[in-house]
């Protein structure tokens, strides 16, 4: 019985390497089984194929019976595997070794022919790969904490001029209620609540150190944001430009028509653009923090903050501070 089960599994493995362009005959399957020390006749292989079909696998016989059989449908389409493969290679929070391992396992979900095609068309890999494999350990620990409903504690770091990680804020310990994790700008972030505050905060996992799961129960997300925490977290992330927090505010912008695509890319496609002379007015929601002003600085020639006045004043203040730096440098050169 054990030998028969092994034979059945080996036949399935062989069929999983096939596709419409690369079928396999029952005779060829018999020859491949011999590589595993399994003697089989063609008729017994045909019975195995019938059993595999009965278990729900979409095994199709070629119209020309001499060409054999192939697996017609899979858990993932080739284009889906391509998207996943690209995402893995571009994820700079993964090491080169981790990415290669994940891509190899994704490729095993494709036929042999498709796997080779995916390899050929995925030659561009991220050159900004981390050498620190601990992000995956932090992800796993946080998943455990979220599943068990526990608080976590950690310290945060920054990189000094010698490119060494140092503890931020004098080694302050953060005790948080963890709720969610996501990738943004090829970085992994934790979305959490820091008691006693009643809002969300985000932390880059590659800057988290000394992470520990506590015995204390985490405050349910519903207690922080109401009955629909998934939506609240999604809205928080949408407002968090460059993953910076801050108070949620509504901003009125005046923009030229060529900026509409960029604004939709940043804030979503549900914006309403109202004609204002040769330009348009639009209201967007954002967090009033560093991320907002970094984004405004990137687009300073392409838009104007109309309201609120506090954002206009803060932006002008930051521009003047930057101008002083450059004027001082020009004076020193003279």
Structure explained in plain terms:
With 334 residues, this protein is an alpha+beta fold. It folds into four domains: 70 residues, Arc Repressor Mutant, subunit A (Orthogonal Bundle), CATH 1.10.10.10; 43 residues; 106 residues, no CATH class; 82 residues, 2-Layer Sandwich (Alpha-Beta Plaits), CATH 3.30.70.240. The protein contains twelve helices and twelve strands. Strands 3, 4, 5, 6, 7 and 8 form a six-stranded antiparallel sheet that branches. It starts with a helix and ends with a helix. The model has no long low-confidence stretch (mean pLDDT 86).
Give the number of helices: 12
- Low-pLDDT sequence parts: none
As a percent range, the share of helical residues equals 40-55%
Q: How many beta strands in the DSSP annotation?
A: 12
Terminal-residue CA separation: 90 Å
Largest sheet descriptor = 6 strands, antiparallel
Structural class, judged by helices and strands?
alpha+beta
Mean pLDDT: 86
Cα shape:
elongated
Number of domains: 4
Radius of gyration over all CA atoms, rounded: 28 Å
The arrangement of helices and strands along the chain is HHHEEHHHHEEEEEEHHEHEEHEH
Percentage of residues in strands? 15-25%
